[in-house]
Design a protein that fits this description.
7 strands, 191 residues, 4 helices, two-stranded antiparallel sheet, alpha+beta, ChaC, Gamma-glutamylcyclotransferase, GGCT-like, EC 4.3.2.7, Hypothetical upf0131 protein ytfp, gamma-glutamylcyclotransferase activity
Length: 191
């Protein structure tokens, strides 16, 4: 079984796997439209994490993990809790295209996608509003800023040829807001 990750799974799968491949799926755009009240936020201040939006001309880069034998049941049980129960995601099968083209055919992979029908779905907002929400959110897995920056770093390092305007616009908005926060915190400490 192959499992495609396009958010925190790219750097922290949390399950044992046999192999991994960087690549992409077609027909989806990655969007910070899913709320998170556990891993990267709280009930009071939900974080923002990514989901996929159907978009016929787009592709989303990430990592596919191959799980075999006893790894299958354990990884699916773990992901069901992490993504479906706590995250509000549904599963789909997609065609994954490995980055390294060694004559490989696309691989059928399982992917978790949050839909607008789940209660944690936040939907679209401006890059500045999403960045502002990310800055103030933190959960059991860490600060929401870490989630955004690790995802942007993954894209730069592993997929430098790929564009993800939505992701990088939010990162840019976050960086433009952060100096104001540091200045405010320093000013408060001095008084």
């Amino acid at each position: 079984v192959w499992i495609f990750g396009y958010g925190s799974l790219v750097w922290r799968p949390g399950f044992e796997f046999t192999s991994r491949k960087v690549g992409f799926i077609r027909g989806y755009s990655r969007r910070f439209w899913q709320g998170d009240t556990f891993h990267r936020g709280s009930e009071r201040m939900p974080g923002r994490v990514v989901t996929l939006l159907e978009d016929c001309g787009a592709c989303t880069w990430g990592v596919a993990y191959e799980v075999r034998g006893e790894q299958i049941a354990a990884s699916l049980q773990y992901l069901n809790m992490r993504e479906a129960v706590l995250g509000g995601y549904d599963t789909k099968l997609v065609k994954f295209h490995p980055q390294e083209k060694d004559g490989e055919e696309p691989i059928l992979a399982l992917v978790y996608i949050a839909t607008p029908q789940n209660p944690s779905y936040l939907g679209p907002a401006s890059e500045e509003d999403i960045a502002a929400q990310i800055i103030v959110s933190s959960g059991c897995a860490g600060h929401n800023i870490e989630y955004l920056l690790r995802l942007a770093d993954f894209m730069r390092f592993f997929c430098p040829q790929a564009e993800d305007k939505h992701l990088f616009s939010i990162e840019e908005a976050l960086i433009s807001i952060l100096p104001c926060l540091y200045y405010t915190e320093d000013s408060l400490e001095e008084t």
